[in-house]
Design goal:
The protein is an alpha+beta fold. It contains three helices and four strands. The protein has a four-stranded antiparallel beta sheet. The chain is globular, with a radius of gyration of 16 Å.
Amino acid sequence: MITAIVLIKADVARIPEVAQHVADVPGVTEVYSVTGGVDLIAMVRVTAYEQLAEVISGSINKVDGVLETDTHLAFRTYSQRDLDAGFDLGLDD
């Protein structure tokens, strides 16, 4: 599974509609409204790198109200379980 984190600047008057349209794009698993330098963060999960262009350039960037995107590819996923195991010394409580 390939995961991309897409930072989205949107028309501030249309953030809820933009978020819903982005969430409806196949390959987008979550959309978050956030504070900071961007308005939305979309999580994209696909099985092949070629699909990223279809989802991001072909769909997300074409959503009316999306002004700019910045995409980051995830190398590795760390879950709480992974972090707990990494710090486990093997001692019983």
